[in-house]
Structure formats: C-alpha cells, structure tokens
Design a protein that fits this description.
The structure is a homodimer of 192-residue chains. By secondary structure, chain A is α+β, with helices and mostly antiparallel strands. Chain A folds into two domains: 2-136, Jelly Rolls (Sandwich); 146-192. Helix content of chain A is 51%, strand content 25%. Chain A has nine helices and six strands. Chain A has helices at residues 2-12, 17-25, 82-87, 108-117, 119-145, 148-158, 160-163, 168-175, 179-190, and strands at residues 28-32, 37-39, 47-61, 67-74, 77-79, 94-107. In chain A, strands 1, 2, 3, 4, 5 and 6 form a six-stranded antiparallel beta sheet that branches. In chain A, helix 4 (108-117) crosses helix 5 (119-145). The longest helix of chain A has 27 residues, at 119-145. Chain A is globular and about 55 Å long. The N and C termini of chain A lie far apart (45 Å). The relative contact order of chain A is 0.15. The first copy, chain A, binds a DNA duplex (30 and 30 nucleotides) through residues 34, 147-148, 167-169, 177-181, 183-184, 186-187.
Chain lengths: 192, 192
DNA sequence: TAGAAATATGGTCAAATGACCACTTTTCCC
DNA sequence: GGGAAAAGTGGTCATTTGACCATATTTCTA
C-alpha cells in the first residue's frame, strides 16, 4: 500500500531511499468509504493527502444545497484545501470519496518539517502547486468562455480515464451545468 | 513615480531602505496607452509587472474573436502570465491597458536574483501568489455555481472601486455573461 | 437474492440568455 | 472644437437552459 506511494515518489523525483522511507513513514494511512467525507466545510484542513487508490472530489455547496465540484483527485494525486491548510482557517469546501479510497495523510507540522529538511520534496511540492494553479486558471477561462457542449468535450478530452468512473450528475456538477443539459448534449452526440 | 512603488514595499514589508532601493533600481519604467498591449498571446511573458497607476486586464480570446477577462490589475498590484513567465513558454493570454497606465517591469533573470538575495521579497512574492490562487479558486466556484445576477453582485461587492472605471462590456467579459444580460440585471435592480 | 437506492434518459413548460439591430449619449482624440 | 468612436440602453426573436416529473435500468447492500 505504502509501496504505491514510494513508487510514485521514485518516478517523479530522484529522492534517496532514505528520504523516501522517511516521508512515507511520517504518513498515516486512512481509508474512506464511498461518499465519506475527508474534510467538511467550516473545519480546518489539517492534512495533506495522497490518494493511493480510489477517487476524491473537492466541492462546495450553495445556499439551496446543490453542490459544485472544483476538482477530482484520482489515485497518484493529492487533495487538500490549500487555503484552509496553509492559513489554518475554516474551509469553505468539502472533500469526499467518490469511490472507496485508500489515502495517506500528513499533518502540517510533520510535512512542513519534511519540506525544510528535504529540498527535493519542496521542489516537487512547488511544481505540483504551480501546475495546479496553471490548470485552474485555464479551467476558469473555459468556465467563462465555453458553451456547455464545449465544456463537456473539453472534459472528455482532458480526463478520458475519469469518464467511465463518474456518474453523470458529478460530471455536470464539475462543469457547472445541469444534469438535464448534460444528457441533452450526450443525446445530440449520439445522433451524429 | 518609483516613489509610489517604494511606498508600496514599505507598507507591505519591513524591507530595508537599501533593499528597496535595489529592487526599485532594477525596474524598467514603461507607460501604456489605453488599449495598448503589454503581452500578446503566443509571446513569452518576459516581465514581472507592477502597476504604479492605471488599470490592466488579462484576457483570452476564443475562436470567434470574443474576449474573456481573467483578471483586472489596478495600481499597486501586479500583472503577469505566471505560466508563461515561469516556464518561458508562449502565453495563451493577453495583457492590455484599460486606462493609460504607468508600469515598472523586471525581467525574469533580474527578479530571480532579487528573490534569492532578498528573502523577504521572496516571502512577499509567495504571499501574493498564494492569495491570487485562493481567490481564483473562489472565483472558479462562483463561475460554476452562481447565476448571472449573483456574479454581478459578487463583483460589485468585491471590486466597488473598479465599477466606475470599467465600461460594462468589460465587466460582462469578466463575468462571462453577455452585455445584454448585464444591462438587464442593472435595469431590474433600478426598479427595486 | 430481494428490496432500496442510485443512475440515466426523456417530456414539457417557463425562464434566462444571447444574437442582431437600432438609437441616443458620452467620451476620446486629432 | 468637432468628428468619430465608444458606451449604454432597449426591442425582438430564437435558442439554450433549468425545474419538475416520470420511468426504466443498474448497482448496491442488508
């Protein structure tokens, strides 16, 4: 289980075996059942989370109770509410499991120490943050400018591997369109 | 002119006079007329830019030529395409002046040196990047979840000082709605 | 394995939105 | 100062979208 994480580190960095071992051993394993929450809004996000297998979603709720998804985090990726984690303030978002998932958690104190002690982990961390920021910027632009159909096509292009694992209403919540609109788009694409 | 930037640094950091002087003297002044471009898509973003006065917009174009605005940068803020600047790759976005503007530019080599030499500048830089990321995340959520009217109200709440300086079609391009819809919202709010 | 819950699709209707056009007022710049 | 461009508003109509409802199918789980 932890081996998967070690493999991830080995393929994404050139960290020494000792460092990898040190990072991995600071983690707490956790599993999440389908729909179980990892982080609830109004709580502080206390952990940096690596997904070993399964699939998480980060989402927010609006006044009427409906949910909109900011991000999906499949195996070999990370999940956290960065603002809440960094500033130790209550989160406005939630993180929950879409599928039964296996996770590794680090609390902030431990992870910060690893970051200061292991420069290459810091480099990886920065790289991940940057990439995530570039892609949210791109996503914001798509959200502003694309039609519903373009948004769906963009999604299928960008995350082909997630398509089959997600119920349509979650894809709709990610695209910011109604389930009805999404079904219509799919229907129209069939007859072409 | 450069004094304004020095004042900015003094109120946002506790940098020494020497450091402030060093940072300021590495900058190139530049002015931009209304609608003049600072960065054009397909070009590499070579400068970190501080806005002394005036107002910039960062925007992208879609196939049909219409524009959508990612960000406004008024005086005492910064503008750049982070992804293009960091990776020295062609930008997909443009930056242009909404009003006649006075800027300070640093090229990457110079600014990187300042960052390594002056830890507190690095701290400020990190803080600015983080804040910008938190707010784009929040903005993405609004773009996904809010109605046109809610988006406009959110905008007036968040940027009351920009309202009077911006023509409506630029606000519409920022909200990702048509000018017509924006006019309708304003019309409806009058009769209430 | 049976019942319950989740999922996918479709129909209908009303509301929201955008495209296109016209007109007036304001602002800009030569 | 004056002509041109930009900005703001409004009308109309077609399209898109969402809300609500129903139903068939699949999946989950007790």
């Amino acid at each position: 289980m932890i081996t998967r994480f070690e493999t991830y580190l080995r393929t994404h960095t050139s960290l020494s075996d000792e460092d990898i071992e040190r990072i991995a051993s600071a983690a707490m394993p956790r599993s999440l059942r389908r729909n179980e929450l990892l982080l609830q809004q109004d709580q502080v996000c206390r952990y940096k989370t690596f997904i070993i297998n399964g699939l998480l979603r980060t989402f927010g709720r609006v006044a009427d109770g409906s949910e909109y998804i900011l991000q999906f985090s499949p195996e070999n990726s990370w999940a956290l509410d960065a603002e809440s984690y960094d500033r130790e303030t209550p989160s406005v978002f939630n993180i929950a499991a879409v599928e039964q998932s296996e996770l590794l958690l680090w609390n902030k104190a431990d992870f910060d120490r690893l970051l200061t002690d292991i420069p290459e982990l810091q480099a990886l961390s920065r790289q991940l943050i940057s990439r995530s920021n570039y892609s949210s910027r791109q996503r914001l632009f798509t959200a502003l400018s694309a039609t519903s159909e373009e948004k769906y096509e963009d999604f299928t292009r960008t995350f082909p591997h997630l398509l089959a694992r997600l119920p349509l209403h979650l894809i709709a919540a990610y695209l910011g369109i109604s389930l009805k609109t999404l079904t219509r788009i799919r229907h129209a694409q069939l007859h072409r």
